[in-house]
Amino acid sequence: MAPQIDLVLEVRDSRAPISTTNVLFDRVLAQKKKIILYSKKDLSVLKNSVLKEWHKSSNEEFMFIDSRNRKDAKQIIKMVTATYNEMSPPPPLGLRLMIIGMPNVGKSTLVNTLREVGYADELRGAISTKKRKVARTGGQPGVTRNTSEIIRLSKDPDIFVHDTPGVFLPTVKDNETMLALSLVGCVHTSFIDPVIEADYLLYLLNLQDPSGSKYSEYMKHPTNSIDELLTNIAKKRQQLKPDGSYDELGTASHWTSLWKQGKLSKYRGVFDLGAILELKGTELKQIFKDERERTQGMKVSEKIFNSLGEDGTAKSKNRNRTAKDREYDLRNQLFKI
Fold first, then answer.
1. Nearest alpha-carbon partner for 248 in 197, 298, 299
2. Which strands make up the sheet holding 158-163, listed edge to edge?
3. Residues 269 and 15: beta-carbon distance below 8 Å
4. 258 by DSSP, 3-state: which?
5. How many CB atoms are closer than 10 A to CB 180?
């Protein structure tokens, strides 16, 4: 679909901005203009100044957003409209967006909000006042299973969008990345042991605030022992049995879910180790360079190379084309005509 797309919106979770970056997108959508959107800002304590430092060297456009926030959606449409106005000649069939990102970072929620804001005048005249979702959403990853049909966001100018399923890396680089992805909901809850997840969360919270204030509602002093913390949580919830036993898995899941959902402001945080250490832009650039080199040895990277060529533009003649690839080539030619 890349030849049909004029602009890419890549959504990353602002609680794990490094871990939710999929470097394979750089190969698949090479030479496409991209705006990076850091979602769930209401759940994060990441500083905007840190993001500015990260993107300064690459001169990338980015925005700190809440996918449900209408004001943020209006700002995104304003940025997209500016891109449309810069295009000469303007695209005859309207500007085509693709929203991409890791699973459960807020892509479908953003599509619904953009539609609600961009199409406000038409929707205002509808008989029903109930908000209609154009993209399915859910609390677990994997709700969006296929790339959506074209969804119109605006008539003036003509802006269309494709919502896409979350794309996960075939393997992650280390345990810390996997745990960070789990804490922001990119990984299904059945894949990670709840106690291990809770233990890593405790480690991250102690890095951000060694005083123990992040869990002071359960105990009055800081601790590095997840067993001690879970025992105090069970006691606070009146689930500690007379013999001192409790449901360890259930208690761990309860505590981590408070941080995943972030329904109260005290549960805002950052779960990326690198983001907590506030890496400089040059260091972050090296991290992504190392990650691209790591993924080049994967079969999926080889498939991308065979399909799109070394530069990722799908224009190179030195490609191993399948029948399906040739079918999509034909579709793209018809689209251009």
1. 197
2. 61-64, 34-39, 7-13, 95-101, 158-163, 151-155
3. yes
4. helix
5. 29
Tell me the domains of the chain and their CATH numbers: 2-170+279-296 (3.40.50.300), 185-267 (1.10.1580.10)
Q: Identify the helix (H) or strand (E) that includes residue 35.
A: strand 34-39
Instruction: Give me the helices (H) in 119-213, please.
Output: 120-124, 175-183, 194-208
The model's pLDDT over 230-282, given as tens digits with 9 standing for 90+, comes to: 999 999 999 999 998 999 999 999 999 999 888 788 899 899 988 888 777 77
* Phi, psi for residue 282 in degrees, rounded to 5: -65, -40
Local confidence band at 319 (pLDDT 50, 70, 90 cut-offs): low
How is residue 241 written in tokens?
């049995």
Contact 2, 329 (CB under 8 A): no
The two structure tokens encoding residue 174: 């280390």
91: buried, middle or exposed (CB in 10 Å: 19+, 13-18, 0-12)? middle
pLDDT of residue 335: 45
Q: How far apart are the first and last CA of the chain?
A: 15
Q: Is residue 337 predicted with pLDDT exceeding 50?
A: no
